[in-house]
Amino acid sequence: MAIMVVSINTAYADENTSVSIKFIGNNYLDLKDDNRLVRADIEIENFDPQDGYYFMKITNLFTGEVIKTSEINPTYREEGLWGMQTSYLVDDTVKDLIGEYEIQIYTEFGTATTSTTFSVVDSSKNPLVVEESGTLEELTESPATPAQTPSTLLPQWVRNIFILYAEQQISEIELMSALEYLIDQEIIQVK
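^ thats the sequence. predicted structure below, dont judge the formating
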């Protein structure tokens, strides 16, 4: 009589699948630059094949238009961790190009989902200005043209820097570093 032993690895069966998105580089794209590629690293902890296929959806938050939907194929990275890098090339065929966009990663059966946002700005047409008032917290924009809407004057990622600082999730040094970068890239100008 032969005995067959089958071993099934269920180390992650009791833990929920967790998906995260981290931008490679910035979470904004400035149309004044030649680079129009938004890149992100997707990590999946406690990967479970029963979650089904993974998909990425990019939506223009201003218009609600779904710009892109595609299947993504995560690969094994290390014990309990799968992932992949993905990118999206922003082109001029999108209506209302300047604005906020959402990247959503979700599973076929809805068992895991996450999303984050990125911005498309054009600092050559509408440079942001930081008034010099003793602090670097007061943000104002250059005079708006009638065609501009308030939702596109100050990108969400700039506001998020101050929110993170106010919630003490980043240090004053990190805040100053972010502001120096924005000034160096001429996204905001100090008067």
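The CA atoms of residues 136 and 176 lie 9 Å apart.
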